[in-house]
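[audit] Reproducing an earlier prediction to check determinism. Same input, same settings, fresh worker. If the tokens differ from the archived copy the diff job will pick it up downstream; this log only records the rerun itself.
[audit] input (477 residues):
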Amino acid sequence: MGSGQVTDWQGKNVTVAGLGVSGVPAATVLHGLGARVTVVNDGDDPRAREQAAGLRALGVTVRLGDGDTLPEGTELVVTAPGWRPDKPLFTAAAEAGVPVWGDVELAWRLRGRDGREAAPWLCVTGTNGKTTTTQMLASILKAAGLRTAAVGNIGVSLLDAVLGDEPYDVLAVELSSYQLHWAPSLRAHSAVVLNLAPDHLDWHGSMEAYARDKGRVYEGNRVACVYNTADKATEDLVRAADVEEGCRAIGFTLGTPGPSQLGVVDGILVDRAFVENRQQNAQELAEVSDVNPPAPHNVANALAAAALARAYGVPAHAVRDGLRAFTPDAHRIAHVADVDGVAYVDDSKATNTHAAEASLAAYESIVWIAGGLAKGATFDELVARSAKRLRGVVLIGADRDLIREALARHAPEVPVVDLDRTDTGAMLAAVQEARRLAGAGDTVLLAPACASMDMFVNYNQRGDAFAQAVRELGAGA
């Protein structure tokens, strides 16, 4: 059960590691294919018991509270992407010569199983901007009249996409570093690594291992490896990749593009990669104003999405129409309200320093609300690069001390309010303090640079709390 396609699952002993959004569909699909499935899960909470009951009703064996022991006779492990590679389960699998796949690998192996031609995958990864770029790409593909869906790490099961009734022409696939780690045989039509910055290093063990897993998205690409000219590490990953003959390296830049690049000229997104005589010619794709919102990092996302779409053969007008039709998800640099001449912007999705820096770069004068779980990050570089934009800072969350210390080193003149609270009500207090620090023309920006789980269920709840606090502020005003 190595690199080849599995054609007969009947009676195969497969262990699915983890329940949740990936484990339950994987177990259900494998059981339906005739495999003997055992699900192991670390937790034994009410949600896990509810999911286990549904699988047991199908005839799947479920073992709760012990995700470390490899069931006897296992021939394949299919793991949830978030399970760390150093878990004892995987050590035991390696010692027994049992392969480990993720749900993305499983979906890749099962594509085209029903006899239909398998839809090619256009893959998006990177430290930040993955979801927005994937959604932009899907919008562009739809504007070209193609049957497509945004799937993968975006929250839509790839298994559902490759095995469902909908006959797709092409898929826009968001992939995390976790998913790529467990997807050794994935071979995309074209792919992009948007950017690379330290993230999830506790999981990967080092920046080198993190980058290596991101770079897997380029392996075996057929048409284009798209990279960020402003982030040399992404180009290095392209150079290191083993691709099919004829696959091209395509750069994107916020500046004037060279040949085989997409970029920006006088407020216009232009293509000098997928045109005839690219040494001399360029194709206008859209205006910067067609990008919502037109913040620099989001324009970069749009260029990356356009590059993948153009690699697939999409006409220029579809890029423009798709970008115009695209509406970003909540909590991604979303304008909430203006109160007393101050703009309030929710970028709760900025859960690491790289994302926060891009968000801060979009505004000139900022009162910054930051803090949460640092996930091992440091903040000196972020603060040093953003200091000149900061009018004030309000800190919340468990690891706020790390940001406060970086501010003291690199922006000692900036006033800081340190809220010694981690309850959900702290957000209203944070917004009130930010209002006190802000003046007309300023932007109060929630870009925490940290994860949310010390105070909130997720970044969505954190962003909702911010928006509600701003609404209360507006009502009071």
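[audit] rerun output stored. Observation attached for the diff report: The longest strand covers residues 36-41.
[audit] end
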